[in-house]
Design goal:
Blueprint (H helix, E strand, L loop, with lengths): L9 E2 L6 H20 L6 H8 L3 H29 L1 H18 L6 H11 L5 H12 L5 H32 L4 H8 L1 H17 L8 H6 L8 H13 L2 H11 L2 H18 L4 H13 L4 H40 L4 H22 L11 H24 L5 H15 L10 H15 L8 E2 L2
Parallel strand pairs: 1-2
Helix pairs in contact: 1-4, 1-6, 1-7, 1-9, 3-4, 3-5, 3-6, 3-11, 3-17, 4-5, 4-6, 4-9, 6-7, 6-17, 7-8, 7-14, 7-15, 7-16, 11-17, 12-17, 13-14, 13-17, 14-16, 15-16, 15-18, 15-19
GO molecular function, one term: nitrite transmembrane transporter activity
Family: Belongs to the major facilitator superfamily. Nitrate/nitrite porter (TC 2.A.1.8) family.
Subcellular location: Cell membrane; Membrane
């Protein structure tokens, strides 16, 4: 798939071009999806008391919240190839708003579990975000574009940890009971999801030159071949060992971030004997690092590619993963709150840079099956989160021990990044594409305001 007129610079304050509208709408939509996806996480201490949940049951709800996303991410990537990211995103946002608001009707562990399972589908929004920015930006900045849009989306995990306890506290000040308060609080992200879905359909387009149906009508894009065509692109991606190597890599970076988003507030609440609001504020710092951390991962990926080509992108990915594992092991050993916060921020920096570095490599694996590749790798993040959640559902393992084992796992599996290799022909082709995108504009690889 060759898409023409991709942008070779990210102009943050320019909303007039389809490339930048897609950039801003995609990160904001993913941000709101994160808000709905993990909106209940900082309120789990209250939900635990209201529904009388055990640690094992809480662990099961964590698994449910990320398990369904695995399936939906696999499907959504192929769907993007067929109908385009605009329709796929709009539909997911509107449909996803229903279970987010509906979780307030849960009155038992079983109904709460089903609600979190349904909400988990909106986590597939990440794949569409990466797909859409890949459609819009040239090779010299695609790593930065993917990383920034995803990072600012992941930032929703941080703002959620901070805002949901404040929304909940505001409802209590109005005289609402705790039992009703956490239920009403979830209406807020649900409404925003619905409105964002309508705006996404109205104000974005699939590619720089138009929507997929228009491009196909003009012969600028191959026709969608129905289910058989979708199956072929998925199989092409699934047969590539590099895709599964990146699947594992994303499991040990994004999967770890999802796990921390789910347990951070309750971990600080219990381990350091803090109030719910204070624990939420501290946990929110982890996600707030996405303001710049994931972007840095993409920027470094593009910089490593300048001199090292695709091998340089892979080399940077491996470095980021090793640093992530070391920081997580160190975080798990912290018993003093101030030290724990400091090391958590270092860990957050590297886990998010590793995510940005991963999707600095993804666009170059198979351009004819971009959606399928992005979907499989994205699903790896949720498989990692599901696997990690089993460490934290057991009554026999403390959260601190679980974090330590998780850090060791990251260090061992980081070597999977080195399995991602490219042929000399692909290396040469992408090196030329990179230089063509830069052209005479030496600053094209950087973010700019205008």
């Amino acid at each position: 798939m060759e898409i023409l007129n991709k942008a070779n610079r990210i102009r943050l304050l320019n909303f007039s071009t389809p490339q930048m509208r897609a950039f801003h709408f995609s990160w904001f939509a993913f941000h709101i999806c994160f808000f709905g996806w993990f909106g209940i996480a900082p309120l789990m201490a209250v939900v635990r008391e209201d529904l009388s949940l055990t640690q094992t049951q809480i662990g099961n709800t964590i698994i449910a919240s990320v398990a369904i996303t695995v399936i939906v991410r696999l499907l959504i990537g192929v769907l993007c190839d067929r109908i385009g990211p605009r329709k796929a995103y709009s539909g997911l946002l509107i449909l996803g708003s229903i279970p987010v608001m509906g979780i307030g009707f849960a009155n038992s562990f079983e109904t709460f579990l089903l609600a979190r399972l349904a909400i988990g589908a909106i986590g597939a929004s990440f794949v569409i975000t990466q797909y859409h920015t890949t459609m819009m930006f040239a090779p010299n900045v695609v790593g930065t574009a993917n990383a920034t849009s995803a990072g600012w989306g992941n930032l929703g995990g941080g703002t959620t940890q901070i805002l949901m306890p404040l929304i909940f506290s505001g409802l209590l000040m109005l005289g609402v009971s705790e039992t009703l308060g956490w239920r009403l609080a979830m209406v807020v992200p649900g409404v925003v999801l619905f409105v964002t879905g309508i705006c996404y359909y109205r104000f974005t387009q699939d590619a720089p030159n138009g929507n997929f149906e228009d491009l196909r009508a003009r012969g600028e894009l191959p026709q969608a071949n129905g289910d058989s065509g979708a199956g072929k692109t998925f199989l092409a991606a699934a047969k590539d060992i590099r895709v599964w190597a990146l699947f594992v890599v994303y499991a040990i970076c994004f999967g770890v971030e999802l796990t921390i988003n789910n347990i951070a507030a309750i971990y600080f609440f219990d381990h350091f004997d803090l109030t719910l609001a204070t624990a939420g504020m501290i946990a929110g710092l982890f996600g707030l690092m996405n303001v710049f951390a994931r972007t840095m991962g993409g920027i470094f990926s593009d910089l490593f590619a300048r001199n090292g080509g695709l091998k340089g992108r892979v080399r940077w990915l491996f470095i980021a993963l090793i640093c992530e594992g070391l920081a997580l092991v160190a975080f798990s050993q912290m018993h003093v709150l101030s030290y724990a916060i400091g090391i958590m921020l270092v860990f957050s920096l590297f886990v998010q840079m590793a995510e940005g570095a991963t999707y600095g490599v993804v666009p170059f694996i198979n351009k004819k099956a971009l959606g399928a590749v992005a979907g499989i790798v994205g699903a790896g993040g949720n498989v990692g989160a599901v696997a990690a959640a089993f460490l934290f559902r057991s009554e026999a393992i403390t959260y601190q021990q679980g974090l330590f084992y998780l850090g060791l796992t990251v260090l061992v599996l980081a070597s999977c990044a080195l399995l991602v290799r490219f042929s000399p022909e692909t290396e040469a082709e992408e090196a030329k594409a990179y230089q063509d995108a830069v052209g005479e504009d030496t600053g094209a690889g950087a973010l700019s305001l205008r």
